[in-house]
Structure formats: structure tokens, C-alpha cells
Design goal:
The structure is a single chain. The protein is an alpha/beta fold. Helix 9 runs antiparallel to helix 10 (423-434), helix 9 (390-401) runs antiparallel to helix 12 and helix 12 (465-475) runs parallel beside helix 13 (511-526). It is globular and about 75 Å long.
Length: 611
């Protein structure tokens, strides 16, 4: 049994318990609070250090009072810039000073990048943080009867629905199962059963591959998926069930069969010539995504490309957000590379333009981005609302909860064997890669255990680890992501192998696994503190993570464990009696116990803010 020091640290985050407004404007005076446990020791003073215009500015906090074993201090911060950083300087009775920033508590001065941040850019839609996402790869999800009547293109290599995906070799992008959008519509009851409320579709544009990231036009839905009418039917049916729909757009490249590329390839002087990066005067050779010739890279220096693709009511971005399609958002493919080549770095211009177009067409829409590594630099609230969280969630959780041994692929990193993390390392990675993010973008990150680009987590999961990992995706700050098939225990060696078909004729064989995911989704959606509540770490050791998501109305205590746990929290670390919501762990006062691999959550009273 241990008594954790982590629970005795001062705490602040960007949630409503600690910040008086989630939507500040320039010039606003915002009240920020810090919670300091009594067990931390006597505190003489608390100050905030802001950095408007990169010149430090100080304010002095006042003590609001003591409650539930902690002091609450409050200071006023005037918002001087669109992204306004601040931190706390906590002076102890002995004269020493500790610094509290988004990276945690430090006994030395901290970096500006790790400051807490107030953001004045337009916020994400209110529903964004309340989302549970379900990802569908259209070719592999479901076939409608109409699919049997469609002539196949010459590139397609037809497969039977029960065939295993070809995941190595030239046939990988050509294997064609024939799933379509009406097939998705026919199985929306499955999404309702799970309780998810956002359907994310990988690209639906015409292309020459099963993944369709090599679009040859952006103004229509692939006829192999049912055409424009099928997308309109799907979004209408999903909206009737309270499920929003997000599309997938490639802002970094088009396909080499795209009408724009065909108009420019080998034809200098055409209007579309400025849309791409040419490597010779004859416009025969060109820059492409990672050297793949079928994916020529877009050049965002072109104002005409911006006009056609991302800017204004007639752009590609706008078209699909208007009736009859009414998409509720975009996930942007390869967002990390978009606008970047050599001396060019136009990523900020692209993401801001896309978001402004979305605001003008329908402000109640969500913009997410693909990033495979550290995304914080581009996640300051000016464009992308959130991004994929491989660095702070997916890879650390895999390394903690996966079996040891040789591995063919680990998210593009050169590990010949599966890395083996402790829970302490998971905690460290999570804090390190979220430290430079504003709270608003952190709660909109995509917490995916796997996607169509990765191996399946179930492929390497330790016995009993799936509920623990999936539970973390539902309870850590961010948007939980379920890739179609996760709820069935689907396996896959790499991204292409993971793109399996759904066994609709045998779905009853997976009832237990489906109910596991449905119960975790219910936990997430029935407890708003898991969407909007603050995040306070209580204990971390080699085999467990213990944290609480807090709001004024209720809090949820979460335990994720790989082995036995017996922890007694300091008095006041949590308030009131706990009601177990899921799992088998026990909470006796402040003593938390659990056996073996386990995920448990308890409902606690809310945290009463001072007026």
C-alpha cells in the first residue's frame, strides 16, 4: 500500500472549474484559480506570470478559502494576445518558489511553451468535446444490394466479403470489396447500439484505389459508393438518429489522375500549373507525398488553388457542408505536412482559411487534423480544433499494455521489438506531449487505439488489456475513437491488414465484446465531466494510473491498472463517497484497491466552486 505525493501537488487546468470563461476576448479580465492541497505545506503567496507581447506581467492571487482539504487561490489575468500564456508562482512559507505550468510542478523556472493558455480564436462547436467517434473505411464496412449492379473500374481487383485483406504487395490498394454508403446507412442501428454520435468516413471521392486518398476530383462522390445521392441519404439518416457525419479531405495532395494535375502535367503555363511543385521546367517531375508518384503535393502559394479548394462558399470545403450533404466537419489528412515544402510553411494560412470557410458556411462544425507526432506547435486554437494523439495517447498506451517481442511495425518508429513502458512512462509521455496545448485543443484530440493506418490494438494486447485501453480512450481528455471492428476484437498486422470487412452475418458471435464497448461509450456520454471536466492526476506507479475528471456537478474517479493496486489517497484528495460506475475495483474512503488487469470508474460529488 502506498500514499501518493502526486495528489498533494497544486493543480490548475483550463476547465471551467479553474478558468472563468472558455471563450475569452482580447482585453478581457479572466479569473484563474489554483487548487493547493493543505498537505502541500504552508503557502505565503501565489502570483500569476503572464507573457503578453513576450514581456512578463504579474498579478497577485487572493485566497478564496479552504474546502475539501485544499486552499483555492484566484488571480486576474488580462488577455493581451490571441493565445495568451500564463503560469503560477507559488511562494512557500520558507521563501522557496515553485512554478506550476501545463507541464506540471517545477522547482525551476518553466518554459513559455508550457504555459497554460487562454485562446481568443473562435472556439470549437459545443458538441465537439461530447463526441464519441466511429471510423468507417467505406470499402470494407457494408455492401448494399446496389453494389452488385455496378461495373468495376479497370484498376479494381474484386474480393469476396470474407477474404482476408492483402496487406503487402502491389494488390494492397487495388483489392476491392465493394462496400458503399448505402451499406453504411443500412447499418446505422449498429452505431446506435454502440452509442457513438459521430460517424467519420475516410474519403468518398472518386479515385483509383480502395482507400481513395488519391482523389481524381473533389466535386462528386464516387459512383462506386453510390454517388452524391447516397451521401445525402446517409447524412440525413444519421442526423435523424442524432449522429453527426465527418468527411476526410486531403489538403496535402491530390491523386495523379486528378483533373487539376492532368491539366498541368507536362503543360507549363496552364492555370493549374501553380497548384503543384514541379521539379523541372517541362513539368514532368514533381514533388509527391513521401515520394509516392500517385500523390502529387499541392502548392498552397497558389491563390487560385485556395479559391477552388478551401476559401469561400464555392470551394470544395464549403460544398459538402451545405445541403443536401450537410457534413458536420472535416478530418484533414496529412495535416502536419500540408503547406510545408522547403522554404514554404503555409500550414497556418491553410488551417485558418479552412476554418474561416467552415465558420461562414456553418459555424457549428468541427475541424480535426491528422498528426502522427508532436502536434502542439500547430494546435494553438487558430485553425484545427484538435488532432490525432499518437504521441500522447496511442503509442504510450500500446507500449504499456501490449505483449513483448519482435514487432513488424510500431507507428512508423524504428522499434524492432515492442517497447515496454511502465504506467509512469505513460503519464510522462501524456504530460510532455500535451504541455504546449491549450485546454481547448486538448479536449478535442482524437484518442484512437488504432485506425485504418495502424495495426489493431487487439493484435498485441496483453490478456484483459482491451477494456483498460478502451476505458482510457473514453476517460482521458479528448475525443474517443472506435475504428469499425474494434468492438468485435478485430486484429491486423498493419494499417492495410486492419481494413477488414464487418461480419454482419455473424454479428451475434460478438455480443459480449460489443456490450463492453457500448458500456464504455455509455460511461463517457452519461457523465459530462468526462467531456468537459478538469483533469487531476492522483497517483501513478509502474502498474496503474489514477486520476479524476472534475466539474461542479459531478466528478469521475478513474483507475486503469495492469496489476494489483492498493493506494490510500491523502485526506481531501477526493471529496465524498464514491459510487462505482463500471469495473470491479473498490473505493473505501480514500483507499483504492483493485486486482490484476482492470479498469474501474466511480462517480463522486462535484467540486463546489467559490463564487
Amino acid at each position: 500500500m502506498s500514499t501518493p505525493a502526486l495528489a498533494l501537488e497544486p493543480h490548475h487546468d483550463g476547465s471551467p472549474l479553474y478558468v472563468s470563461t472558455q471563450t475569452p476576448a482580447l482585453g478581457d479580465a479572466v479569473q484563474v484559480r489554483v487548487r493547493i492541497p493543505l498537505g502541500y505545506g504552508p503557502v505565503a503567496a501565489v502570483r500569476t506570470r503572464s507573457n503578453p507581447d513576450h514581456e512578463p506581467r504579474w498579478s497577485t492571487a487572493t485566497l478564496l478559502g479552504e474546502r475539501d482539504g485544499a486552499q483555492w487561490w484566484q488571480a486576474e489575468v488580462e488577455v493581451g494576445n490571441p493565445v495568451h500564456g500564463y503560469r503560477f508562482a507559488i511562494e512557500r512559507a520558507d521563501g522557496s518558489v515553485a512554478w506550476l505550468c501545463n507541464a506540471g510542478l517545477s522547482d525551476i523556472e518553466t518554459r513559455d511553451d508550457d504555459d497554460f493558455k487562454l485562446v481568443t480564436h473562435p472556439p470549437a462547436p459545443a458538441w465537439g468535446a461530447e463526441t464519441v467517434m466511429y471510423q468507417v473505411f467505406p470499402d470494407r464496412f457494408a455492401r448494399s444490394a446496389a453494389a452488385d449492379t455496378r461495373a468495376l473500374p479497370e484498376w479494381a481487383e474484386p474480393a469476396d466479403w470474407q477474404d482476408e485483406p492483402i496487406y503487402q504487395g502491389p494488390s494492397t490498394p487495388l483489392q476491392f470489396y465493394g462496400g458503399d454508403l448505402d451499406g453504411v446507412t443500412e447499418h446505422l442501428d449498429h452505431l446506435e447500439r454502440l452509442g457513438v454520435n459521430l460517424l467519420y468516413l475516410t474519403p468518398f471521392f472518386p479515385a483509383r484505389s480502395n482507400h481513395r486518398y488519391d482523389a481524381h476530383r473533389f466535386d462528386q462522390v464516387d459512383e462506386l459508393l453510390g454517388g452524391d445521392e447516397a451521401l445525402a441519404r446517409l447524412t440525413a439518416a444519421a442526423h435523424e438518429r442524432g449522429i453527426r457525419v465527418m468527411g476526410d479531405l486531403t489538403s496535402n495532395h491530390s491523386g495523379d489522375a486528378h483533373e487539376w494535375f492532368r491539366a498541368a502535367h507536362g503543360q507549363p503555363g496552364t492555370a493549374e500549373s501553380e497548384f503543384y511543385y514541379w521539379l523541372d521546367d517541362e513539368q514532368q517531375t514533381y514533388e509527391s507525398w513521401l515520394g509516392v508518384p500517385s500523390l502529387p503535393k499541392l502548392n498552397w502559394n497558389s491563390l487560385e488553388l485556395r479559391r477552388r479548394f478551401i476559401e469561400g462558399p464555392d470551394s470544395v470545403v464549403a460544398r459538402w457542408m451545405k445541403p443536401p450533404f450537410d457534413l458536420d466537419g472535416w478530418r484533414i489528412d496529412v495535416a502536419n505536412m500540408t503547406g510545408r515544402f522547403g522554404d514554404d510553411d503555409l500550414n497556418e494560412a491553410v488551417r485558418r482559411t479552412i476554418r474561416q470557410t467552415m465558420i461562414e458556411v456553418d459555424a457549428d462544425t468541427l475541424l480535426l487534423a491528422e498528426y502522427t507526432n508532436d502536434a502542439a506547435k500547430d494546435l494553438q486554437g487558430d485553425g484545427w480544433h484538435g488532432a490525432m494523439t499518437y504521441a500522447n495517447f496511442t503509442r504510450p498506451v500500446w507500449a504499456w499494455l501490449s505483449s513483448a517481442g519482435p514487432i513488424e511495425w510500431f507507428f512508423g518508429l524504428p522499434y524492432p521489438v515492442m517497447p515496454q513502458y511502465t504506467a509512469r512512462q505513460v503519464h510522462h509521455a501524456h504530460r510532455r506531449f500535451t504541455a504546449a496545448m491549450p485546454w481547448r485543443t486538448r479536449i478535442h484530440g482524437m484518442n484512437a487505439l488504432d485506425t485504418h493506418d495502424t495495426a489493431r490494438f487487439a493484435n498485441r494486447a496483453l490478456p484483459g488489456a482491451v477494456p483498460v485501453a478502451a476505458g482510457l480512450s473514453m476517460t482521458l481528455p479528448g475525443i474517443p475513437v472506435v475504428f469499425a471492428g474494434d468492438e468485435l476484437g478485430t486484429t491486423g498486422e498493419n494499417g492495410e491488414h486492419s481494413r477488414t470487412t464487418m461480419p454482419w452475418d455473424r454479428l451475434g458471435d460478438y455480443d459480449e465484446q460489443i456490450e463492453l464497448y457500448a458500456s464504455l461509450v455509455r460511461l463517457r456520454r452519461e457523465h459530462p465531466s468526462l467531456s468537459h471536466g478538469g483533469m487531476r492526476w492522483l497517483n501513478v506507479d509502474d502498474d496503474s494510473l489514477l486520476f479524476v475528471r472534475e466539474s461542479a456537478d459531478e466528478s469521475v474517479l478513474v483507475l486503469a491498472a495492469r496489476d494489483d493496486v492498493d493506494v490510500t489517497l491523502p485526506t481531501g484528495a477526493i471529496a465524498g463517497r464514491g459510487e462505482r460506475l463500471i469495473g470491479t475495483g473498490t473505493l473505501d474512503g480514500t483507499r483504492v484497491r483493485s486486482t490484476g488487469m482492470a479498469f474501474t470508474a466511480w462517480r463522486l460529488p462535484g467540486v463546489r466552486p467559490f463564487d
